[in-house]
Amino acid sequence: MSEAKKILLIDDDVDFVAANTLLLEAKGYTVVSAHDGDSGVAKAKEEIPDLILLDVMMTHDTEGFDVSRRLKDIPELEKTVVIMLTGITYK
């Protein structure tokens, strides 16, 4: 049997991470998480996930974009898919 696919959630919203961890684990994925950009990059290097779900706005409005650029420079993550998420709403 193949090993479960690993997903890294990088998001400063603890409740979002907890809820999505439960949902993804219930579907058979292994989930690891980080709550800021620096720890997210470190966790990505350590875990080499199959997918990264990355929040756009964390400690500052563009932290997710900064992190995505840093992730691109890690050769081991060359084939890792990064999906960027945001809860930005404009009225």
Secondary-structure map:
Elements: E1 6-10, H1 14-26, E2 30-34, H2 37-47, E3 51-55, H3 63-72, E4 81-85
Parallel strand pairs: 1-2, 1-3, 3-4
Helix pairs in contact: 2-3
Question: What's the quick description here?
Answer:
The protein is of the alpha/beta class.
Summarize the structure in words.
The chain is of the alpha/beta class and 91 residues long. The protein has helices at 14-26, 37-47, 63-72, and strands at residues 6-10, 30-34, 51-55, 81-85. Helices cover 37% and strands 22% of the residues. The chain is globular. The N and C termini lie far apart (49 Å). The relative contact order is 0.21. The mean pLDDT is 91.
Topology as H/E string? EHEHEHE
Q: Supply the helix-strand structural class.
A: alpha/beta
Number of strands: 4
User: Biggest sheet, strands in spatial order?
Assistant: 2-1-3-4
The number of helical runs is 3
Q: What is the first-to-last residue Cα distance?
A: 49 Å
Q: Give the rounded overall mean pLDDT.
A: 91
Globally, the shape reads globular
What labels describe this entry?
single chain; 91 residues; alpha/beta; four-stranded parallel beta sheet; 4 strands
